[in-house]
Amino acid sequence: MPLKRTFFAAAAAFAALMASAGPAWVHPHVFAEARLDVVLTPDHQHVKSLRHLWRFDELFSSTVLMQFDKNSDLKLDDAELKDVADTIFSSLAEYDYFQFVTVDGKDVRMKAPSQIMTNFDNDQLIVLFESEPATPIKLSGTIDFGVYDPTFYTAIDFTEDANMTVDGLPSNCTQHVVRPDPDTAIAQNQKTLTDAFFNDPTGNDLSKIFATKLELQCKP
Fold it and tell me: What is the 3-state secondary structure (H, E, C) of the chain?
């Protein structure tokens, strides 16, 4: 079964099937440790881009290796790695590359990355890419950056706060990592969450309320 189906296209269908037994059955099946670097413009007044690095779990990585190792030499050469990258690039497009950005609660449109790069390190698949906002984001108000899979199939985990960073933040801004407690997130968003969410959590983007995010607070 191709990567696009097992990892992305089938994710929503699988999660919905598991959800039919109740919300407790909806849980990730692919895991990745992540790093997010927010890059500022040279004048340090706007957000220029987001740099992502994801290190996938060994089980999923071995599945990728078996699927894309066309010459069966138990490794992926440059052409095979490009095939992996191209598949991930096309598969993630409909999910906005698992990233969300808001300014004062309003969504910010992000451009697709120019490319996705892949590698293997210690038997784990590494994915790297950089994306830019459609227009530079001014450092003003509350700016949130998060990475999540709206299908709940993939867990993007920032194991340490230091894995979500922004260098050169001006003195009028502060940063902190927000890790929502699931029960608290549900209670705080009870009016927004509907029966449809609990019956099919893959059918909307409300899963972002559970995502770890980097929050910037900037005064005028």
Answer: CCHHHHHHHHHHHHHHHHHCCCHHHCCCCEEEEEEEEEEECCCCCEEEEEEEEEEECHHHHHHHHHHHCCCCCCCCCHHHHHHHHHHHHHHHHHHHHHEEEEECCEECCECCCCCEEEEEECCEEEEEEEECECCCEECCEEEEEEECCCCCCEEEECCCHHHEEECCCCCCEEEEEECCCHHHHHHHCCCCCCHHHHHCHHHCCHHHHHCCEEEEEECC
* Cβ proximity of 36 and 158 under 8 Å: yes
> Which residues, other chains included, contact 11 with Cβ-Cβ below 8 Å and sequence gap of 6+?
149, 151, 152, 153, 154, 202
Tokens 């001006």, residue?
170
Provide the residue-wise pLDDT of the chain in tens; the chain has 220 residues. Answer: 455 544 444 333 333 333 333 343 456 788 999 999 999 999 999 999 999 999 999 998 998 999 899 999 999 999 999 999 999 998 899 889 999 999 999 999 999 999 999 999 999 999 999 999 999 899 999 999 999 888 778 889 999 999 999 999 999 999 999 998 766 655 655 665 555 444 444 444 556 777 899 999 999 8
- Two tokens at 2? 């191709």
